[in-house]
Write a structure and sequence with these properties.
Radius of gyration: 14 Å
Number of strands: 0
Order of helices and strands: HHHHHHHH
Shape: globular
Number of domains: 1
Helix content: over 70%
Strand content: under 5%
Distance between the termini: 43 Å
């Protein structure tokens, strides 16, 4: 188990609350981007139990946005509400033009998340 997996297994992610993994991820993107990006890709692809919360946490790390957009696009294709909600959360926090284009192109099947999508786009005057 990696450090990041251990942090998520020991500490649950709560919206609005600091998660210990945030500090680790900020430092990793700052000093070891080449090492952390493939590790995040591996965890997001194989650890469904912590994957959505990891994606939400990555949304709180501005430096992860450029790398994370692929993971968000993948999460939006998942049948799981939790994965898609995590993708919306990350996009909202990164607040990048590329992220909004991904969200605009996404056809959300869940009425609640679709309303959230419309709200996010309307707040930014995007169609």
């Amino acid at each position: 188990m990696t450090t990041i997996e251990g942090l998520f297994r020991r500490h649950s992610f709560e919206t609005g609350m600091h998660h210990p993994a945030e500090d680790f991820l900020r430092e990793a993107w700052k000093y070891d981007r080449e090492g952390i990006v493939p590790e995040m890709a591996r965890i997001l692809a194989t650890c469904n139990g912590i994957g959505p919360d990891l994606l939400r946490c990555l949304g709180r790390v501005p430096a992860a946005a450029a790398d994370g957009l692929k993971w968000v696009a993948d999460a939006l294709k998942q049948p799981s509400y939790d994965w898609r909600d995590a993708a919306f959360y990350a996009l909202e926090h990164w607040d990048t033009p590329e992220g909004w284009r991904i969200l605009q192109a996404h056809a959300e099947p869940d009425p609640h998340l679709d309303g959230y999508k419309r709200q996010l786009l309307e707040e930014r005057d995007l169609p």
